Each structure stands twice: as C-alpha cells, then as structure tokens.
C-alpha cells in the first residue's frame, strides 16, 4: 500500500465511533456490524456515531491535513478494519470559480470520473467487511462504473443492470472494469425490480441506491470536504442535482454531524436546492404541493440521465432536508442546461456534465429572480466529468494545400 | 478568487527566482521577461533559476502543504504576477497501485483530463504575462483541449489545428471550451508547418510543443510532485509515454533542480524509460543506434494517438536524459498495450489511457526479461483519463419480461 493510502486508511486499525444504525423513517434502532438492506419497515437506514466521543478525541485540522481524499474522514465512516478500505487514488475535489460568488465543486476528478465513487467506495468496503461477495444494482451509468471499479479492486463480483439507452461510454467502462453488464428493455426502476427479485432468491445482494446503509456515508463526505475547504464554514446556497438524492441527504447529515462535533466556526447551514429536469421533476412537484413523499413521474425524459429518476426511495429525506434548510426544489429545461453548459465551457474553461450544468442554470435563474442575492455565496455540484456526455460536432475543415 | 487558488497563486506578488533563459542546445543566454519562441539557433529554450537563493528562502514542506496542485510550486515556476495565474482546480494527481512495486500516476484527474493541463496552464499564464493575445498549435487532441480551456479562462484567443483522425471527443471538447478548431488533411507535423507559416505572418503566436519556453516548466511539476509524494525521494524506474517528450525532459530538469535545492533526502535519480508504440518509435530507433537526434518516422500508426509523433524537436533532450539516467527507450505493440489496458481495468479497477497502458505493458515486459527487478519500485505515467478513448462494445442484452 502506498504511503498516502496507508495514512488515510489509518494503519491496521481505525478508531471507529459507530454506535448503531437506525431506520430513516421511524428511528428504530438496528445493530451495527451486521448485513442490512432496508429497515424492517422498508425504509432507508442511517448510520449513527458517538460524536461526543469523537469530539473529545479527534482534531479537525489533523484530519483535514491527511492525504487520501474522502477516506481521510475515517472516524466519521463506518469501515472498521483498514484492510477493508478500497482505494483508487481519491482526491479532494476542487472548487472552480464559474462566476462572481459561484463555484462548481468538480466531482469529475474522482476515480471513475464521478461523485458515485464516494458512495460506492464506502459501500463496497462495507460489503467486503461484512462478507458479501456478489453485488448487483440497476444504474443509469456512473453508479455502475464506480461499483465495477471498486468491486474489482476489492475482489468482489458485480452486476450492473442498465436501461437500453444508458450512455454507451458508461456501459463500456463498467464492463471493462470487470462487472457483468446487462442492457435491459426498461427504465431504472424496472431494472431495480428485476435485481430485487433475484436478490430475494439469493443470487446477489441488492446494492440499489439507499437499499444498503453505507453509500450515504460515502456521499456525506461531500459535505465534510466542502466545510473544510470553506474554512470550517459553509456557503449560503447549495445547488444539487437530484436523482436518488443520496448526496443531498448525505450532506445534510454531514452538516448536523459537524455541528455536533463543534467543527464549524460558523454553524449557519446553506439553503439546499434540489435541482431536477423539467422532464423528470417528482421532487419539485412534491415540494410545491407540500407533500412529504413524491409520486412516480410518468414518461420521464431528459438529456441529463443522472437525474432521470422517476421515483426516489429516499424522497422524504430529500424533502425534509430541503425544507429544514429553507431551500427549495427547482426544475430547469434541457435547453437551459445545455446553454449553461456551453457558456460555462467557453467563458470559464470548465466543461460541466449535464446535471452540473442544470445546477448552474438553476443558479442563474435564481440570481435573475432574486431568490439568490449578489452577496450570497453559492456552490453548484458538478457530479461527473463533462467528457462522458455528448458534445456538438466540429465541422470546420482545413485544406493544408490550399 | 477562492482561498485555495489565492494561496497557491501566492497573493498579489510571487517570489520569483528566474535569472534568465538559455538555448537547450548551446546554453547561450537569453533575457527573461521577453517573448521567445525557439532560440536564435532554432532550439528549444530552458528557464533557469537562482536555486541557491531559493534554497535559502524556501521551505520544501511549507510548499508541499499548500493547496492548488501544480501551482503550489510557484517559486520554481516563471510566472511573476499572481493575477496572471490561470487556475481551473488543479489537484495533486494520485499514485494508484497497479501491481506489486508498480504505481500509476493518474494524470487524468487534472483539468481537461490530461497532463497537458500542467504545461498549457503555465504557458498560457506566461503568454498573458508577456502580452500575447492569439495562440495557435497543432495537436493530436489533449494539448488542444488544455490550451482551449486555459486560454478561455485567461481571456486569450486560441486555435487548434488537428489531423483529420483526431479523436472526435478531443475535437469537440476543444471547440466547446472556446477555441477555433480546424480539422486538417495531414499529420501533426504538417499541421505544425501550417501554423508556423501563419505565425511568421503575424496571425498568432506559435504555441507548438517546445517552441515556447514555458510548457516544459509546467510539465516539470510532475517530477516535483512525485518527489514530494515519494517522501522526498524517487522511485527506481519511471516509464513515460514519449511523443514530444516535454514531460520526460521536464522531470529530468526537475530532479536536477531538486538536488541543487537540497530537497531530496535520497538523491538517487530514477532510470527514465521512454515508451513508444511499435508503429511510431523514432526515439527508440535513435536510442538503439546511439544517435543524439531521431529522424522522422515514416507512416506512423498506432492506437495511442498521444505518442503518434513522427519527429520531436526536443529529441536530443529526451535522448540525453534517458542515457544520463541509465534508462532506455522501448516500443510496445498496440496489441500489448490494449491487453494491458483491459487487464488493469478488470484487475485493479483503473481505466488507463492507451499511452498509460503502453507504459504498463513496457513495465511488464521489463519485469519478465529482468531489466526491472522484483525489488525495484516503478511509476508508470497514465497521461490522461481512459474515458476519452475507445472501449469494446457491450452486447449482453436482458429481456426484463422473460
């Protein structure tokens, strides 16, 4: 193991402050150190820590000075044995200025080129720690790629079931990294039902979004990392592309944990804005209607495949966080996000993914209508490298002999 | 400017130790702070620093503790004014274990997804500092993308002249980031001649590899960063994909500077291995023949476009460094590099670019024939994200209704 990896992994034994797990809906207590999917009541599970003990024993600046990207937050992650850490060269993702008062957090710099690395690295490490060997999930692309790479690294078997129209590059990278890839004639929730049925037959463990407790812990490192980068404070507003919503839920959990740890010098939490596409906006509809759950969106369609999620199992956790933060849910058109993508590339030199561009378009709309003031600081999450997505053709030809 | 960018930029004024420039062939002295292309004798130009003054005033560990990726090495870079620094979220690229004793330095994590960011960021910053406004270059892909992004960020105009068969993704990202992109009916050296002719007419400044003095300074940060990551020492062997060779030359320059600074605890320098493709191996041919210059390779062909460079203007600097290091030049077949790429992805979870895979294939061949011992530590440079390159199709279909 390389020095930096070893340092982040924490030597052979990691101090661990996990006390228990609990049902995200009822709060019912569940035992740590055992395999869990959804709670007995069928809801996503959250991991709980003894944060007062961590507060007494862990120094925030010593943690932030470590190498190893998101693995540096080991006292706030569930992995117990350093040998179970699965590392592929994680880095802290940079904040890139994309306008006055607005920064893109460029998650495309992570292994496999997307924020999915955070969640899947931790989930795969926990699968290894708990003795699972065969993992499967439905995926629109980036999650499958991250699962495949980390499972290969960990020596576990992985299967990705993908809608027919999943981007070709995602299918190919996922397969090349060792996973079984199946192109299926259905949308992601239909693929999920197929995976679930076979999980119940014992063919594999169901690794779907929020159907195991640990992906959210990996995603929460976006919030921890952002706080440290911001000088142990937080921006005024966060625009987050919302499909399954694990990252938004995870960041909101991270902010609460940071406050309990006393690690924030300024405990003001950001307004959380859940960004969706007009062609698939179940959370926006539910937020506007004042509902706690979001009904399935029919005939979902958008170029931003990562947020083409008609039904999110963690809908109530997303909507709770958005409301508690004083934020909102907002939909943008495909035309607006593609326009924001092109302008950001040409003016700022940063190529966003469509989902990241949706956040920038949402930010711009809010600056225009006053929901975000000129004095507000904002962060938009660019959840993947822009290189994985279609770009306009280049037609200008030059005859060197002319 | 974000805090981390500002810190790396060094406030408004950067301590700068540049004394002069010099011809890379004759050593003839040239004045700093003025626009230079090639030396008056037609050779690449190198930047020289007062390293004894830097040694007295700069602390290596304080430098390494900074944020800002390669911009952190500001005392060893030529940019004088912090306002001229052009930043897009640079990170230190990770070392990822890809076998016992061998690590891939994953340059795909940089802005625009390749090591070209290092050289072009510094070259564009210097163009801005020296008052150049219109830049042009021939490119097989990644250099054009980096030029485009950093020039957009700096507010400069950029033109990329690309061989017809440049990968579609490179053409498109370069154009989307604001550069003029011209698809031309010729190879890279023919595109270069066309750019040069128009530079002489005053249409733009010729930004070709090694035809301005600063790209090599950016590339040299690969060597500085590697030394710091390695605990102020260096691995036994470095495998480097060699097209124009700027990175190999730059790293060799970095190692000499680190020794003069007294920053290496172990001053043993690595054997430098210049890796090329069998279908385009001018440096390998010259190395074997004991020549100091490498004649143009006819009918160059390889899937590794980044090293499809038939004629390198810095050939003598590459060959000098390889020989001085006790290293060698080595060619691998396209079949071998594609095989190494697939195995590394499936076994280690890391998707290499073809040029990085060529280095891994070369390393494996050297372990097999004993040129590299089991006890040797080796680093292979993965010069770009593997996502930009073709991957095998996925054909496995699943009928959810069956």
Keywords:
homodimer; 402 residues; alpha/beta; Rossmann fold; 3 domains; four-stranded parallel β-sheet; 14 strands
Task: Explain what this protein looks like in three dimensions.
- The structure is a homodimer of 402-residue chains.
- The first copy, chain A, is of the alpha/beta class and 402 residues long.
- Chain A folds into three domains: 3-84, no CATH class; 95-114 and 214-387, Rossmann fold (3-Layer(aba) Sandwich); 116-206, Rossmann fold (3-Layer(aba) Sandwich), CATH 3.40.50.1100.
- Chain A has 13 helices and 14 strands.
- Chain A has helices spanning 3-9, 51-57, 60-64, 116-129, 142-154, 168-176, 188-200, 215-229, 246-261, 282-289, 315-325, 334-348, 354-369; strands spanning 18-23, 29-30, 45-49, 95-97, 102-106, 134-138, 157-163, 180-184, 205-206, 237-241, 271-277, 328-332, 378-382, 397-398.
- In chain A, strand 4 (95-97) and strand 5 form a beta hairpin.
- At the A-B interface, helix 1, strand 4, helix 5, helix 6 and strand 8 of A face helix 1, strand 4, helix 5, helix 6 and strand 8 of B.
Layout of strands and helices, then pairs:
Two copies of one chain form a homodimer.
Chain A: H1 3-9, E1 18-23, E2 29-30, E3 45-49, H2 51-57, H3 60-64, E4 95-97, E5 102-106, H4 116-129, E6 134-138, H5 142-154, E7 157-163, H6 168-176, E8 180-184, H7 188-200, E9 205-206, H8 215-229, E10 237-241, H9 246-261, E11 271-277, H10 282-289, H11 315-325, E12 328-332, H12 334-348, H13 354-369, E13 378-382, E14 397-398
Parallel strand pairs in A: 5-13, 6-7, 6-9, 7-8, 10-11, 10-13, 11-12
Antiparallel strand pairs in A: 1-2, 1-3, 4-5
Helix pairs in contact in A: 4-5, 4-8, 5-6, 8-9, 12-13
């Amino acid at each position: 193991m390389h020095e930096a990896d070893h340092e982040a992994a924490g030597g052979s034994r990691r101090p661990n402050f996990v006390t228990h797990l609990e049902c995200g809906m009822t709060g019912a207590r569940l035992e740590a150190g055992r395999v869990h999917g959804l709670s007995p009541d069928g809801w996503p599970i959250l991991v709980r820590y003894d944060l007062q003990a961590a507060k007494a024993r862990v120094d925030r600046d010593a943690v932030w000075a470590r190498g190893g990207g998101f693995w540096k937050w080991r006292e706030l992650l569930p992995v117990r044995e350093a040998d179970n850490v699965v590392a592929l060269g994680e880095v802290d993702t940079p904040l890139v200025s994309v306008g006055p008062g607005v920064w893109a957090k460029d998650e495309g710099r992570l292994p496999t080129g997307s924020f999915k690395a955070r969640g899947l690295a931790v989930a795969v490490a926990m699968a290894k720690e708990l003795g699972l060997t065969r993992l499967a999930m439905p995926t629109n692309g980036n999650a499958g790629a991250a699962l495949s790479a980390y499972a290969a690294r960990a020596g576990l078997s992985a299967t990705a079931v993908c809608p027919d129209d999943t981007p070709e590059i995602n299918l190919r990278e996922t397969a090349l990294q060792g996973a079984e890839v199946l192109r299926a004639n259905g949308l992601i929730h239909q693929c999920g039902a197929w995976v679930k049925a076979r999980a119940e037959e014992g063919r594999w463990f169901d690794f779907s979004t929020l159907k195991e407790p640990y992906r959210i812990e990996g995603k929460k490192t976006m919030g921890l990392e952002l706080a440290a980068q911001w000088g142990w404070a937080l921006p005024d507003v966060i625009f987050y592309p919302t499909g399954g919503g694990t990252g938004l839920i995870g960041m909101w959990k991270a902010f609460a944990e940071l406050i309990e740890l006393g690690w924030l010098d300024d405990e003001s939490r950001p307004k959380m804005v859940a960004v969706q596409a007009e062609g698939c906006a179940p959370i926006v509809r539910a937020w506007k209607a004042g509902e706690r759950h979001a009904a399935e969106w029919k005939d979902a369609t958008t170029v931003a495949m990562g947020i083409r999620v008609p039904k999110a199992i963690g809908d109530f956790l997303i909507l709770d966080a958005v409301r508690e933060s004083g934020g909102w849910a907002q939909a943008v058109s495909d035309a607006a996000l593609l326009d924001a993508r092109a302008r950001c590339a040409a003016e700022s030199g940063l190529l966003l993914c469509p989902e990241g561009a949706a956040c920038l378009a949402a930010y711009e709309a809010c600056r225009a209508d006053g929901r975000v003031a000129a004095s507000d600081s904002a962060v938009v999450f660019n959840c993947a490298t822009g290189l994985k997505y279609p770009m306009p053709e280049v037609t200008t030809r030059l005859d060197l002999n002319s």
